[in-house]
Amino acid sequence: MTCVLRWGLMAVSSLLLSSITHAASQLNQVYQLSTDNTQLVYTVGEDGRLIFRYYGPRLSNTDQFAPWRSYNRPDCQREANYEAYPSFGLGYVNEPALSVINANGSLITELVFDNYVQQSSEGVIHGIFTLRDRVAAVCVQLHVEAYQQEDVMAQWVTIANESKGEVSLQRFYSSFLNFRANNYYLTHFYGTWAGEMNRVEETLEPGIKVVESKKGVRTTQSENPSFILSLDHPAQENSGHCIGGALAWSGNYKLSFEVDERDYLSVLAGINPFLAAYKLNKGEQFQTPKFLFTYSANGQGTISRNFHDWARRYGLHAGMKERPILLNSWEGAYFNFDEQVLTDMMDDAAQMGVELFVLDDGWFGNKYPRNSDKMGLGDWQVNAKKLPRGLQYLIDYATSKGLKFGIWIEPEMVNPKSELAEKHPEWIVQSPGREKITMRNQLLLDLTNPEVQEFVWGVVDKLLTAHPDIYYIKWDANRHVEQVGSQYLSSNEQTHFWVDYIRGLYEVYDRIRAKYPDVMIQACASGGGRVDYGSLPYHDEFWTSDNSDALQRVYMQYVTNLIYPPIATASHVSATPNHQTGSVTPIKFRFDVAMSGRLGLELQPKDIPAGEMAFAREAITNYKNHVRELVTKGDLYRLISPYACTNNHAANMLVSKDKRKAVLFAYCTGFNRRGIRPTVHLQGLDPAKVYRITEINKVSKRKAFWGDGNCYDGAYLQQVGVELQIARQYDSAVFLLEEVK
Ligand code: DGJ
Fold first, then answer.
1. Containing H/E element for 628?
2. pLDDT tens across 576-605, in order?
3. Closest CA to 475 of 551, 562, 541, 430
């Protein structure tokens, strides 16, 4: 049931705010939104502005926040105060959350509080602050959602033009937060193709630090729209105050961290305003994406678990559902396959215990056959030469082997050498009169155009209508925007491209999800180019990276799982030597790493040496019987960071919510000299429960822990720990912990 509470003035339609008066009681009203352990507090100042007062651990008494004067100048010598959603114009000189060119040309926005409405549904409190410009008829609604159990908040705004003319939004961030600490440490995530999600922590100095993307598409490959901010000290795993943030948007974004002259830190998150001015005609409104954030008073471990809980419940498609183990054809066959190659792969996959076969790139195009990345993209007809009996033959074959079937598409893109490009040159993103810049020999389709949206929807709908047994789609996107230009948008709307492209994409996805709620979809964009909370509601998982090297994945998955949950982290065992790095790694190490995420295979099964097949089968069985459930629903505890370890080790574990089961993963990331053995202090267990610890995925009789097979209580395992005998590079161990009564 939804209950609606109202405070303050009722909504007043399109009135000029000079006529709004605030009752004395409202001026000192404290508005607080709380989760089980955190709290966000606002008050209304003397001049009617809504002031940001606090975000941190939950307090028992918030009445103490009133009274408060408000004087909107961070440079003034009075108490520092920052508006809940600072706008440019009257006094605010930092980077504003909102800047507008009003209908009369005025550059000033001055938002004052109008009313507050709060709604509750199960587990979520949703507060809406209505703010209105004191002079211009512009109305902003600041939304805050407080997810109780997960300790996650979401913020976004809607901006409405209630004036008679046109207004132009210049900046329209989703969220503003403000902090005061002695020092600020920002962890953010950078990378590139085959090297996504590296982490760097830096001290924030006075001035502005920006993390952003201007790539339009595939925006998370070089910087991810998420961060961990640690107050006073560098981020620790289990202690210290820190804030995690993640923007739910798959297009251009900007995260701005401004330490001003008063040493306060203002954090803005939202759509990147770079060349993105957005026009609102009379009566139109603009909604920003959600910014998600969470607070921990005990280190970044809690930040990750909060985000994972939230993602599984609210942010990821089918977040609690166990995923099938898959074999993807890409690294095993690339473009070089025919029916026989694929059915052989299916035979082997089925024998290994794999549950889903995914046919990657190369299955389409006839006039321009897709035998390489040079042609055929956009022509979504089955290649009759390679697959004369069509897709249904392959799907039926998979079914006969007990496998589900999945398929790769890249419907946002086109090769210039394609029937689609010949037929619809006007659908291509380009700037008239300039040479088209291809990337991986391809161009981008203009999703601002409803005809293109219809086409992209049609690619999926036709496939799934013709083949209702398709269980899984791998949705790829292998380039970003390098030469912006829409032939659909008018000349004075070209700056809308960045926003309208992503809105167009999301509209297509909304249609797909409405008609096909049960189809699994993977977000792939040359690997990890679309790993963001905007895309996750449409997807069941993401392809973490085209780098499938197990050692590299230890680092990359460690960082990815700081913000995103392991169940969404597609993690595949690939061939050795690895196709990206050339490293030669034991099959055990490759499985032990891949099993800490959504397990899959990315190889030609025939290349697995006969002597290793039995191990591969056993590891797959172990995953199904013991590990998958924990990867899907468990709490992640990082025990040894591969980044922070003075020796060459890494370890983490997943613990069931009822603390009756856990799995521990440990890896050697390099050689360790004689005598160096890591002792891992387990976490997340019930100190009073007794657990049997059993090593799985064993390749020899040698015990990686001398107590293997014995029982210990949680207190022992956490305080005394588990001493591991893994020392050489690529040594690894996986242990199950099961409660014994
Ligand atoms: C890039 C993806 O990341 C790969 O996994 C593969 O699907 C190729 N594209 C296919 O072109």
1. helix 628-633
2. 999 999 999 999 999 999 999 999 999 999
3. 541
Distance between CA 50 and CA 70 in Å, rounded?
9
Alpha-carbon distance of 111 to 95, in angstroms, equals 16
Confirm or reject: Cβ of 410 under 6 Å from ligand 1.
no
Q: How far apart are CA 155 and CA 267, in angstroms?
A: 13
Residue 544's alpha-carbon distances to 250, 530, 537, 558, in angstroms, are 15, 9, 16, 11
pLDDT of res. 16: 36
Which numbered atom of ligand 1 lies nearest the CA of 527? 3
CB distance 361 to ligand 1 below 6 Å = yes
pLDDT of residue 732: 97
544, part of any domain: yes
Taking the C-alpha atoms of residue 677 and residue 481, their distance in angstroms, rounded to an integer, is 49
Question: Quick one: which of 111, 91, 125, 118 has its CA closest to 7?
Answer: 118
- Residue 454: phi and psi, rounded to 5, are -60, -40
Comparing CA positions, the residue from 161, 173, 334, 141 lying closest to residue 249 is 173
Which amino acid, one-letter code, is at 24? A
Local structure of residue 19 (DSSP, 8 states):
G
Dihedral sign (CA 717, 723, 726, 730) = positive
Residue 45 structural domain: 3-315
Report pLDDT digits (tens) over 627-645: 999 999 999 999 999 998 6
Within this chain, do residues 101 and 241 fall inside the same structural domain, yes or no? yes
Whether residue 321 is contained in a domain is answered as: no
Distance separating alpha carbons of residues 468 and 516, to the nearest angstrom: 10
Q: Are residues 269 and 156 in the same domain?
A: yes
3-state percent breakdown (helix, strand, coil) of the chain, nearest 5:
20, 35, 45
For residues 621 and 725, state if they share a domain: no
> 415, 442 in Cβ contact below 8 A?
yes
Instruction: Render pLDDT for 201-238 as a digit per residue (tens, 0 to 9).
Output: 999 999 999 999 999 999 999 999 999 999 999 999 99
Identify which of 569, 560, 629 has the alpha carbon closest to the alpha carbon of residue 598: 569
Nearest partner of 639 among 739, 708, 737, judged by Cα? 737
Q: How many CB atoms lie within 10 A of CB 510?
A: 13
**Is residue 263 among the annotated active site residues?**
no
Region class of 88: left (phi > 0), else alpha (psi between -120 and 50), else beta: beta
| End position of a domain, from candidates 617, 633, 649 | 633
The enclosing domain of 711 has a CATH number of 2.60.40.1180
Strands 152-161 and 82-83: unpaired
Query: Is 280 part of a structural domain of the chain?
Result: yes
* Residue that finishes a domain, picked among 604, 633, 662: 633
Locate 737 and state its tokens.
């912990």
pLDDT of residue 673: 85
Residues 495 and 529 in one domain: yes
The string of DSSP letters for 392-415 reads HHHHHHHHHTT-EEEEEE-TTEE-
- Residues near 83 by Cβ (< 8 Å), separated by ≥ 6? 49, 50, 51, 52, 72, 92, 111, 176
Task: Judge contact between 184 and 343, C-beta under 8 A.
Answer: no
Decide: 546 in ligand 1 pocket, CB within 6 A. yes
Residue 562 has φ and ψ, to the nearest 5°, of -60, -35
Q: b/e string for 160-177 if b means 16 or more Cβ within 10 A?
A: bbbbeeebbbbbbbbbbb
Between the CA of 377 and the centroid of ligand 1 the distance, in Å, is 13
CA distance 516 to 695: 41
Catalytic position from the list 260, 476, 592, 635: 476
- Distance, in Å, from the CA atom of 534 to the CA atom of 718, rounded to the nearest integer, reads 37
Number of the ligand 1 atom closest to the C-alpha atom of 440: 11
Structure tokens at 372: 């390489």
Decide: 708 and 691 in contact? Cβ < 8 Å. Answer: no
Ligand 1 neighbourhood includes 408 CB (under 6 angstroms): yes
Domain count, the chain: 3
The Cα 31–Cα 65 span in angstroms is: 10
* Residue 320, in any domain of the structure: no
Q: Are 375 and 524 part of one and the same domain?
A: yes
Task: Kindly tell me if the per-residue pLDDT of 140 is higher than 90.
Answer: yes
